[in-house]
Design a protein that fits this description.
Helix content: 25-40%
Largest sheet: 5 strands, antiparallel
CATH superfamily of one domain: Nucleic acid-binding proteins
Strand content: 15-25%
Order of helices and strands: EEEEEHHHEEEHHH
Radius of gyration: 19 Å
Oligomer: single chain
Number of strands: 8
Strand order of the largest sheet: 3-2-1-4-5
CATH topology of one domain: OB fold (Dihydrolipoamide Acetyltransferase, E2P)
Length: 219
């Protein structure tokens, strides 16, 4: 049995769903679940499922719901953002159990009403590390420890670069490495830097970010 979550789903025909799932054991997979009306696997829920090979996509033959998360408002948009990141950035079949476990914990935190910023930024950073695009919050691009009196800029292919007029103060960045408790300035820096790093490896903008923008305008 595979422990998994549903990242995306579309009707395949009158009876079946085509699902994009993220499995702890098997990474991102495309699977079919039959009987669309009777077997509806929801987003933001954790399942254990078995599937077998078929002529097109593997087909689920057994499923059990482990946990359901009731999300709405900003928490729901955050979960859609996480799902889109995984759909867009993961290669099919690459197992990433650490990222999967972080995803489950993040969903649980969002469902529990916790502030999303630390959870989203931690998830983004771990995902980048697992994909091979990681960098250090505590050292610059040459491996030197950050100097608390120095400012830094960020380049996706290099990391943090010392710069007299840099956008980021070291004392904002260092707490992100676990050396202290990050404050509001630290999370603002993390958001800007991680967005730059993620945008560098995307081939087109994320639709979920547009949903955030529309929600802010409506609010």
């Amino acid at each position: 049995m595979h422990r998994l979550c549903v990242l995306h789903r579309v009707p395949l025909d009158e009876a079946d769903w085509l699902l994009t799932v993220f499995s702890r054991q098997s990474g991102k997979q495309f699977v079919v679940t039959p009987h669309r009306k009777q077997t509806r696997l929801e987003l933001n829920s954790i399942y254990e499922a078995g599937w077998s090979d078929s002529d097109d996509w593997p087909r689920i033959y057994a499923v059990n719901c482990v946990k359901q998360s009731q999300l709405d408002g900003d928490a729901l948009l955050c979960s859609l953002y996480l799902n889109e990141l995984l759909v867009r950035l993961l290669n099919t079949g690459d197992s990433m159990p650490a990222v999967y476990d972080r995803y489950e914990r993040t969903l649980e935190a969002l469902a529990g009403g916790q502030h999303p910023e630390p959870w989203l930024r931690t998830f983004e950073y771990q995902l980048l590390m697992q994909l091979g695009y990681g960098f250090s919050w505590s050292s610059d691009c040459d491996g030197r420890p950050l100097n608390a009196q120095t400012r830094y800029d960020f380049e996706p292919e290099r990391g943090l670069l010392p710069s007299r007029d840099g956008a980021y103060a070291a004392h904002w960045l260092l707490p992100l490495s676990g050396t202290g408790k990050p404050g509001a300035e630290s999370w603002v820096c993390a958001k800007r830097i991680l967005r730059q790093a993620i945008d560098h490896i995307l081939d087109r903008p994320l639709q979920s970010r547009e949903l955030f923008s529309w929600r802010k305008k409506d609010g």
